[in-house]
Amino acid sequence: MQEYPLGPKPVLLRAPVILPMVSPPLIDGAVVVSGGRVRELGSFRHLRRTFRGKILDLGEVALLPALVNAHTHLELSVFRFRLTPSGSFVSWVRSLLRKRTEVALSEARRAVKEALQELWQEGVGLIADIGNTGLSLGLLREAPFYSVYFREIIDFKGDSRIQEFVRGPEGGRITYSLSPHAPYTVSPVLIQALKSWTRRAKLPLSIHVAESPEECAFLERGQGPLRTLLEERGQLPSGFEAPGLSPVAYLQRLGVLDERTICVHLVQVSRRDLEILARHQARPCLCPRSNIFLGVGLAPLPQMLSSGLKPCLGTDSLASNDRLSVLAEVEALYAAYPEVPPEKFFLMATLWGAEALGRRDLGFIGPGARAELIGLGLPPGRSSPWERLLEGPKKVEVRLYATV
Ligand SMILES: [Zn+2]
Questions:
Q1: Spacing, Cα 152 to ligand 1 middle (Å)
Q2: How many angstroms does the Cα of residue 319 sit away from the middle of ligand 1?
Q3: Can you tell me the distance from the alpha carbon of 118 to that of 108, in angstroms, rounded to the nearest whole number?
Q4: Mean of the per-residue pLDDT values of the chain
Q5: Is the distance from CB of 244 to CB of 268 less than 8 angstroms?
Q6: In Å, how far from its chain's centre is CA 201?
Q7: Which residues on neighbouring strands pair with residue 208, listed in sequence order?
Q8: pLDDT tens figures, 287-314
Q9: The predicted structure's pLDDT at residue 66
Q10: pLDDT, position 277
Q11: Distance, CA 403 to ligand 1 centroid (Å)?
């Protein structure tokens, strides 16, 4: 992969195809960047006439905004290839809980560093990282990414001291927010309190929702292996009564669904659930390769799109995936749903992820956008650039990043 740092001076980038994500593909296009931002976008022939500065021809690539990994847990990177795909969600949770106690801090830290290098090679520019130890935070601060760090809360009894959830330092490349882990591991009042806090701060809130059939069995009927697990861990309140609703309908009843709620997974959803999500403009985040690893199924992407939802993509952690590649997630979804219009996969991998994470300066190429760009190898052919990219090897050939 070729890397080009972009400094304060104007540079004109030329590529045979530019995919701005907010407007149609540009053939033989050019982008002018300076001071870390995109200034102009247009045809190469037109922009070169008035441009005075360095011209960089990127070769046979499609130029896109850097990708968005809208859901991962960097602190779990040490578990790559250490957990067995058992086909049972709860068995996987149990082995993760057990293995977490066996890992040395230095080893876990080294794995986060390697994970960040991998994300860079894979063309990711914006990361949503979920953590409950703070292990990845220092490394994220030093890394050249934009990120949202979600502090994860797990507390089904709900006796956490809510006032402790204070906002992190302002500014820079990291946004700090909160993430109730899931409807079956955080008490209803605590989910509401966390949403109230993020709503007031105009921050995204991320929550795992409708991932496994076991989650539905627990919320709908109060039964199944998740109930047993909560009992064993002393986390089931006495006199607990199941809400008797699907995970999505339950979150609606709690009043926590809106355009700043990122619902991660949404594999176990009905048509009615999709209507609820669309009505509240909630943001689905799909992690297909993790879902395949855990054997829970796949989110119904075509139905989501026809409901008007704008899903984004995440890899989830290396405890349930072997890669942190957003392009590999695109490949998995395309293989399952070849009928989906090709450009939607790239919107999911860029613009819709940035929007869900509240970053209006990333995920597209246009005046004002951050100069965080990638060039994907563009196979020759007569079909649309979207189709050529989807069918090609999806390799990041060029990475351009702002140094100012
Ligand atoms: Zn997750």
A1: 10
A2: 9
A3: 15
A4: 93
A5: no
A6: 20
A7: 264
A8: 999 999 999 999 999 999 999 999 999 9
A9: 98
A10: 98
A11: 31
Judge whether 95 and 79 are in contact, CB under 8 Å: no
Q: Quick: pLDDT tens for 255-266.
A: 999 999 999 999
- For the record, the structure tokens of 177 come out as 């927010």
Which pairing describes strands 26-34 and 11-18: parallel, antiparallel, or unpaired? Answer: antiparallel
Rounded to the nearest angstrom, the distance between the alpha carbon of 81 and the centre of ligand 1 is: 17
The DSSP 8-state label assigned to residue 66 in this structure reads P
Across the range 167-193, mean pLDDT stands at: 86
Distance 264 CA to ligand 1 centre (A): 7
CA of 188 to the centre of ligand 1 (A): 19
- Residues around ion ligand 1, judged by CB within 5 A, are 316
Q: Quick one: pLDDT at residue 248?
A: 98
Query: Does the pLDDT at position 169 exceed 70?
Result: no
pLDDT at residue 72 tops 70: yes
Please report, rounded to a whole number, the percentage of residues in the chain having pLDDT higher than 90.
82
Going from the Cα of 339 to the center of ligand 1, the distance in angstroms, rounded, reads 27
- For residue 88, pLDDT over 90 is answered with no
Distance 284 CA to ligand 1 centre (A): 13
Q: How far apart are CA 319 and CA 358, in angstroms?
A: 27
Segments making up each domain of the chain, as ranges: 2-65+363-402, 67-356
Q: What tens digit of pLDDT does each residue of 16-67 get?
A: 999 999 999 999 999 999 999 999 999 999 999 999 999 999 999 999 999 9
Cβ(394)–Cβ(332) below 8 Å: no
Q: What is the pLDDT of residue 23?
A: 96
Q: Is 236 exposed, middle or buried (0-12, 13-18, 19+ CB in 10 A)?
A: middle
Between the CA of 190 and the centroid of ligand 1 the distance, in Å, is 19
Identity at 261, one-letter amino acid code:
T
Alpha-carbon distance of 92 to 368, in angstroms, equals: 44
Determine the distance separating the centroid of ligand 1 and the alpha carbon of 105, expressed in angstroms: 21
Ligand 1 mean position, distance from CA 136 (Å) = 15
* DSSP for residue 79: G
In CATH, which of 3.90.79.10, 3.20.20.80, 3.20.20.140, 3.40.50.280 is domain 67-356? 3.20.20.140
The helix/strand/coil state of 283 is: strand
**CATH annotation of 2-65+363-402:** 2.30.40.10
